[in-house]
Amino acid sequence: MAISIKKIVSIGLGGLMLGSTFCSGAFAVEKVGDVDSFVSDIVSGNNSNIDIIVGSNSVASDVVSAANIAAKIGSLSFLEQNGKSAAATLSIASKSKSEEFNLIGSGVTDSLFAVSADDDYLSIITNADFHSSTNLDATGYVSLEDLGNLMEISDTDPSSWFTGSDNDVSAEFLFLRLKSDATNWKVNSDEMSYMALLLDENLGVPGGLKCMSPGRNIVYLGEEWTLMGMNADADKVSMGKEVYRGTLKEGKSYFVNGYEIKIDSIITDSTNYKVSAKILKDGTVVKSAYDTAPLNLISNGIGIRFQKVYESIDSNAAYADVVIVNSVKGMELGSEVIPDYEIYSVLYTGGTFRYTDDFLKGQKNMGLALKYVGDDLTGLGSDDTVEIANYANFLFDDEGKSATTLSVFFEMNEEKEVSIIQNQKAKVLNVEVIADKISAESEQSTILNAPVVKLDTETSMESSENPLILVGGPVVNSITEELVNAGLFAIDDDSLATLAVVSETANGNDVLIVTGGDRDATAEAANALIAMI
């Protein structure tokens, strides 16, 4: 097996060059220092030895930018396989932290703490729209803003797959009801939840809530899935990982995981269209269907959804707009899908959110929830951690045993592996990965590691063993601030998107700063760097 993994090496330049403007597609950025050489070494080396640093107080967009840079560098690794299909498994990791809240002197005795992928979606917390049956109807409400690793995906409406983007998103939320217990704190069973809700990004929650339906893409525990079914008889939701989204012509096939998905015929009476399709393995039919679209066909972990069927303008050919998925899984509502957490559909009726384990016609199912059903967590205090759905944490920190401070906050330190086949798109922890080419000399897969994203509190200029990419300016990233204070880099609120190399400053290694005068400029600088790699 021939494996090529790219490496970043030390650059060792003598000083900063004058700034210049770099354009790549829609991205423009000021370059300071020999940015081109830094990026060239990313592309031409033999190992992905680099650390990407975000500030512990960074905004969510900085965390997303750092993760996207890591994924782009990681995607330079590939397997080579002689003409045979292959799969690669990418490992993606990053950390993020929400705003903090000091419990000491706050008067909190029963409050619901919440965080989301975007703080604009959290009007839900001020409106207190939780039915008593959810056990999330606290007497007080605290928004801890956004958490960078929490994920949202856009363009979830299948009706816009081939006609353009929409405003619909699926976004993640965390809710935890914290109560006082004498001098300590507690979280009771049923009073903690992970939710993935569908909404109009311009209207937020609850005003912009949307209904789940087969064909929609949704986020679930940091990964993008396509809803394939909401079975009312079994009260079961099924979903899969998108492999292909596009148009298939009548008589054509698509091959995935050793199976053939074939459209035999599309028949119309000029009003209605019916599609005849089947899934085959080694020429043998394992599942078939003949019905009007929209229509699902699922077997052996793969599936196809026929969203729309139509004829060409000259009526000489027929086509189907489809999404094809693999890794299909089904989850029964009300069942324990991970230890101590049961899955429910989320309803919004009568102005309140509720859980349901029963799909009924006419219900407005707005998303999925994982409800904590484990033991009550009592006696919580300094240095304790509450784990949420094996995905995120809620932490208590007295900041050095201070009598006047007991901060609480959400934090994520998540690593996920995503397996993809050639041309498959996957979004994990807000990082979108597309496998342009996967090949190798055998059918064996391997794990390819993207660079690790760290917080600025986890490293220093003196201890760093690798070159650094710093995402964010001096206000949010303490290492960037150190460079600014040392007079090695300058930036202000009016600065454009900037990429700057400071030579041999991180324990002899070079540093690339990705920043701008505000969060939008920083994101633009990150996108320009990604375009260069």
Average pLDDT level: 82
Structural class: mainly beta
Q: How far from one another are the termini? A: 25 Å
What is the count of DSSP helices, taking H or I runs of 4+ residues? Answer: 5
Rough outline: globular
How many distinct beta strands?
Answer: 38
* Rg over alpha carbons: 25 Å
Tell me the helix content. Answer: under 10%
Strand content: over 45%
How many discrete domains? 3
Low-confidence stretches: 1-26, 78-85, 437-448
Question: Describe the biggest sheet?
Answer: 11 strands, mixed
InterPro entries: S_layer_C (IPR022651), S_layer_central (IPR022650), S_layer_MJ (IPR006454)
Protein name: S layer protein
Structure description:
Residues 34-533 form the S-layer protein outer domain. The chain has 533 residues and is mainly β. It folds into three domains: 3-86 and 438-532, Chitobiase, domain 2, CATH 3.30.379; 97-232 and 333-412, no CATH class; 236-327, Sandwich (Tick-borne Encephalitis virus Glycoprotein, domain 1). The strands form seven sheets. Strands 8, 9, 10, 11, 12, 13, 24, 25, 26, 27 and 28 form an eleven-stranded mixed sheet that branches. Strands 2-3-37-38-36-4-35 form a seven-stranded mixed sheet. Strands 6, 7, 29, 30, 31 and 34 form a six-stranded mixed sheet that branches. A hairpin with a 2-residue loop joins strand 11 (168-181) and strand 12 (184-187). Helix 2 runs parallel beside helix 5. The protein starts with a strand and ends with a helix. Mean pLDDT is 82; it is low at 1-26, 78-85 and 437-448.
